[in-house]
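One record is kept unedited as follows:
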Amino acid sequence: MGVNINTIVKDNVAIRCDGCLEIIQGTPWRLNILDIVSTEIATSSAERGAINPGPFQFHGDPSHVKQWMAENGYYFCRRSEVREIMRPVPLPGPGDSVLWGLCDGIHRDDHEFVLP
């Protein structure tokens, strides 16, 4: 019939870096945060988890991840690397609040959390 139907159109690019908010060309680098507690039943849709596990997407440079951590109040363990899966560690905060540190969990010695 001679009718050309294009089904793949890329007019709107929605893949943005969570660190710098710029457009990511190609495949984004993703980071996931492990659940802090494994539950036996699914949480209700009315409840909110303590941490959003992601995935979060970034440019390939680790500085973008550290910028995102700093803006969201996460501490970074200096003994670890920025990896695809980070483990949350509860830290004592002011009063009864809890702060969160992120670590890759590969090292065997004590954590050293700093603001990124």
Remarks:
- The longest strand covers residues 85-92.
- The chain has a mean pLDDT of 85.
- The first helix runs from residue 62 to 71.
- The CA atoms of residues 75 and 114 lie 5 Å apart.
